[in-house]
Structures are given as C-alpha cells and as structure tokens.
Amino acid sequence: MFGLDKKDASLLLIVAVLVAFAPFLLNPFPEGSAMAQFNAGYPDLMQRFVIFGIFAIGFNILFGLTGYLSFGHAAFLGVGSYAAVWMFKLLSMNVLPAIILAVITAGIFALIIGYVSLRRSGIYFSILTLAFAQMSFALAYSVLTPITGGETGLQLALDDPRIFGSATTADGNIPVPGLFGLEMRDSMELALGGWVFTFNFGYYFCAIIMLVAFYLSIRIFRSPFGMMLRAVKSNQQRLNYTGLNPRPYTLAAFVISGMYAGLAGGLMASMDPLAGAERMFWTASGEVVLMTILGGVGTLIGPVLGAGMIKYMENIISKINSDILHGWFAFLPDGLEDLVVTMIYPFIGKGWHLTLGIVFMLVVIFLPGGLVEGGQRLARLMGRKKAEQPKSAKTEPAE
Amino acid sequence: MDAIILQILNGLDKGSAYALIALGLTLIFGTLGVVNFAHGALFMIGAFCAVTLSKLLTLSHTVIDETRTDFLGNPLKVEVPYVYDVFGQATGDAIIDWAVPLSILFAIPVMILIGVVMERGLIKHFYKRPHADQILVTFGLAIVLQEIIKYYYGANPIPTPAPAAFVGSFDFGALIGFEPGQIIYPYWRLVYFAFAAVIIAAVFAFLQFTTFGMVVRAGMADRETVGLLGINIDKRFTIMFGLAAAVAGLAGVMYTPINSPNYHMGMDFLVLSFVVVVVGGMGSLPGAVLAGFLLGILESFASMREVIAIIPGINQVIIYLVAIIILLTRPRGLMGRKGVMED
Hints:
The complex is a heterodimer of chains A (399) and B (343).
Chain A (H helix, E strand, L loop, with lengths): L5 H15 L1 H4 L17 H24 L7 H17 L4 H23 L4 H20 L3 H4 L5 E2 L22 E2 L2 E2 L3 E6 L2 E6 H22 L1 H11 L1 H6 L5 H25 L2 E2 L6 H14 L6 H15 L5 H7 L5 H11 L7 H15 L3 H29 L1
Antiparallel strand pairs in A: 1-6, 2-3, 4-5
Helix pairs in contact in A: 1-8, 3-8, 3-11, 3-12, 3-13, 4-5, 4-11, 5-6, 5-11, 8-9, 12-13
Chain B lengths: L1 H31 L6 H19 L2 E10 L5 E7 H6 L1 H9 L1 H23 L9 H23 L15 E3 H4 L8 E3 H23 L1 H11 L1 H6 L4 H23 L9 H16 L4 H18 L2 H6 L3 H16 L14
Antiparallel strand pairs in B: 1-2, 3-4
Helix pairs in contact in B: 1-8, 1-11, 1-12, 1-13, 2-5, 2-6, 2-11, 2-12, 5-11, 8-9, 8-11, 9-11, 12-13, 12-15, 13-15
C-alpha cells in the first residue's frame, strides 16, 4: 500500500485508526465521574497531541537517523508560527497559504542555520544550534518587535489589511482561521449515555496532516536517502573514506526536520492565531528532545508516542491537586492517608516537571530505546514465556 | 576612556560567574570526558545554600518583652533569633549580616558531597555511553534538581543581601585619577571579582603545585597509562568532580547579592557557560577562564547605549554571534587542544 511493505502499511493503518477514533479512545470515562479528569478527548489537547507529534516526527528524522542532537529546534517552530500569523494578517484567514508559508520560511531558516551548524558535529553542533535558537529568541523578544510583537507576542488585530477576505466579521469581531469556509474551531458533540464525545474540525485537519507527515517519514526511513543518513550516524569517517560527502545528506535531513517543525508551528498558529517568542526558548527545544527520547529515538512510532505522553502528563497530571488526592486515598486510615498524600503531592500539580524529569532520567538510564524498546522487551518476555511452556510440556513425558 | 573602564568593570562580575562555571564544566569534561548539563543546577544549588544558611541563622523563637508594650498595652512579643541566645546580640547581628560570606563555609562541604554523590551514583555509569546520552541524562537531572528546589523554596526570587559593609557603591574613577562621579562601581561586584580570581588561582595552583594535581593532570593527558602505573585515577577524578561542583556552588553563593536567586537561574547561566566553554576550547582550563572574562566584558560593551544605537539588539546576541564566528573560524576554540571532542 502506497509503496510501503506490509509491516509499515499496517503500522500506518493502526496509527490512522487510532487518530481517527481518538475522540472516543481518549474519553474512556463518563462525564461527571471521578475519573473524568483523566479524559483527554477535548479538542485543544487532541490538537496539541498531533501537532507535537508532527514536531517530534520531524526531530526524529534528524536525531534518530543522523544522530545529530539539535538543541535549537524550537526556533523553527517559532518561525513557522510567526509566518503563519503574518499570512493571516496580510492575506486571508484560510489556513492553507499560512501553513505553506510557515513550512517554506522554516525551511529557508533551517537551510541557513544548518549550513553553518553542520560544519561541526557532536557537542559542538548541539551548542551551535542552541546558540542560534537563543539568538533568534533574544532577537524576537527585543529588536524584532515590529515583526514579532515582542513580549506580548504576535496577534491578530481588527485593522489588519487582509487582502482576500474581510478585516472584520459582520458583527465586528476578528475572523477565525478556517479552510474554505469551514472554521477550525467547528465542533460537533455526540452524547452517548454518560459519555460526551467532541469531534473538532481543527483536530481532524491536523490529524490528516500528521498522517501525511508520518507517511513521509516512513518513506524517508525506508529510502536510500534514509540509509545514507543512518550511515552518517553509525560511522561518518568510513563514509568519508568511501568518497562520499555526508554534508549534503545531513543538511537535507536538517532542512526536512526544520520544515516539519515549521509545519507544526503553522498548525499551532492555525488552531489559535497567535505566536510568541517563548515558543522559541531553549526549554521548548529541550521538550521535543524529551518527547523523542521518551518515545524511542530512531523508531517510527516512538516520537508520536512520546509527544502524546508528555502532553498528556502536562495537561492531566498538572491538574490534579491535593483535594483530589485526598479523595482517592479516602479509603485509607486518616494518618496513612495524609502520609500517602504528602508523599505523592510533590509529583503532581505544579510539580509535574519533577515527574517528567524523573521519568526521563529513568528512560535514558534503563531504556535508551524509549517506550518502544520497553514495549518490545515486554513483548519478548511474554513471547518467551509462551514459547517455553510447550517446551516444558514436551520434556515432561520423557521424565 | 572612563566609559571604557566602566564597561570593563561592568563586564568583570558577569565574566567572573561565566569563568567560574566554565572552569567547573571544563574540569569535568577534561577529567571524566562528560558533558555536564546539570552544572547550571549546581550553580543554582550553591546560591540556595546561601539562602538556606541565612534562613537558618534567622530562625527565631518568640520572647515576651516585659519592658515594652504593643499598641493594646499588652507586653510586646519579640522574635529573637536563636543565634542571639548563643552568641549574644551584637555578635549575632554580625553573623546574620555576614550570612552570605559565611555560606561559603557551609557550601563547600555540601557541594563536594553533592558532586561526589552525583558522580558515583549516576554519571559513573555513563562513561561508556555516547555524548548524546550524557547530555540527556544530565539534562534530566538538571530538571529534577531544579524542581526539587522549586518545591521547597517556591518560584519567586529570594533577596539575599550582602553584608552592610559592602552595600552601596564607591567612586572608582576618583581612585585612579579621573573626575569624581565618572565611574561609580558597587562594592560587592568588586568583591565578587576578587573572590573569583582567588578561586581560579586556587584551582590552578592546586592542579599545578600539588602531587594530587599532578596525577590529575597526568590522568587528563593519558588516563590509561596513569591507571597502569597503579594509581586509582577514578577516585581522583571523582574528587575533581566534587571540586568542580564546589567551584560552581561558590560562584552561586557569592552571586546571590547581585541577583536574587530563583530556581531557574542555573539554566540561564548554563547556556551561556556552554558557549563560553566552546569559545575557550573544550578541555582547556585557561581557555575557559579567558573566554569567560572576554565574553562578559564584550557583553557589557555591547550594552552601551552608543553601540545599541548603531546596531540595535546587539547586546542580546553578541555572545552567540561571537561563538558562531569563533567556531567557524577556529573550530577548536581559542585555546583548544587537538583531539578533544573531534568526533
């Protein structure tokens, strides 16, 4: 299917099904029940899942295949956001031109930064990209305020000179981004018994783009070009000796992954038309590194899993407060309840970064392949048990 | 001329902080070959050692003062720090006033302990792993340390004043023969610079003139041969890690009066310190110190009003710009050695 072998095609199919039914899958608990806070099926969060999924997929093309660890990838996401918002301000509220411009701008930006940074490798490369990203952040925050909006960020205004489409809606509001008349925030709610499922147009729009991005990344992974990138990772020197110049390949990978980040930035601006410099801060770059590592670097599905997990933790764990905890452990005797709650409390709510840091460290230490490797190990463990059972059954009669 | 001297002075304190952190980073990198992203967190923990000590010193209990009354006519309740009970009021006040310099004594053992625990408990297992893994695990550790501090001390900056004797500024220009009022410089920044100079000199002297330092230098040059000579080089490198942590911590302790510490101050310094290390040359101790001061002074020159008028925003990006130019023209940094991190 689509030039994929059977295994990849089924992976793509599984992802497509999961993404299509996400509004159901992420809302497993009835509305109003005690577990409803674990529901992640609201449009805002689902959009973030897929958008950061795209970002992480792109990052994985660079880091997973070539081994070049970029610590400044958020700069491309930020540039993409700015480009998209400017398109909304100047051209029209249609998301297509905005996203296309976001991808192109981020690509050009990545070409310039990559051309310079890729002259060095290893830790030097990480620090060069970090320096470029921090530089972009500092400039966006201060001098480039006319273009970027500075501290307040870039927002739509009522007097935007929109060439196609009106500056204001009939009732005097700022129009919202849409695709040929369909608004991104359009939602349809479906109530089934105690459950409420929300189907959001913006989410499905992002989801389709993510599937295309995912498909492209599979194709890159399986292509001769992807093979070349893997060669760069495993032994660049040997590649040099065979007379091949790895630079064009790594630069292409860098630009592609920058364009993925720009795409994510453009989508982010399409869902919520504003852009701020904090999206370019280096901790944002660190976040995408965390996502990719957590999920499994160099694997196809890993980055998407990692992005989903981190965004889920960010939104759900950070919402739990001590009252909810007391509610959960109410069945314990009073003293024990307080003890358990005080022990767990630092890790939830505002402390979710602590949980993230610990989980991340554990993954790097014990599971360098991330969640995907964890799943594989688990599967192998189960498989071995199954395989062993018939063996022992066979030996028994002999005794 | 006076403007130039003023900018050099302004650059010194930030440059000192950069130099101290970069020195620690380079020590760790040169000895253990580990890229430590948690070094900024160590700087931050050092600053919070000062906060902790000044909090401990001002721990107080309530005493009812019979001689005074509050506005209702009841005997006045006075908070009396425990320090008063031990040393008496005058000495107690002096101790509280000097909390930040005293924290140095408190921070050294704490930081060495943290450093040794960190190296033995975590980093030891990452020597054979790729540099990317080392970056990632120490990055994770930095997040954890930062969040622990945030949990106990909150997210707001905690003002920690310098001793009263060093509060305020003095007229540096008048001292060296300029018109009075031209070069005004705060006392504490001069103290910070002097302190940094002493620490840097001490580290270099330790490496240069002691047997221990000689072994460590030999280990940096050729770890395997030193090991073959029957010397337990790992133990010495662990101690060097503790020392590097202490250097970063002390830089943090003394920085508290300049900038009220908050939980992410380390991260802010870390990015710049890495740039400093790279500009100085990975693995070169003199390079790190030189680049620290150079970049600090360069930054303060770039924030002059006249310069900003010509190139707006240059003060924000000058360090990164310099780093990029240096890396592209002198790939090994200012004083880098051949064969360090060339892969």
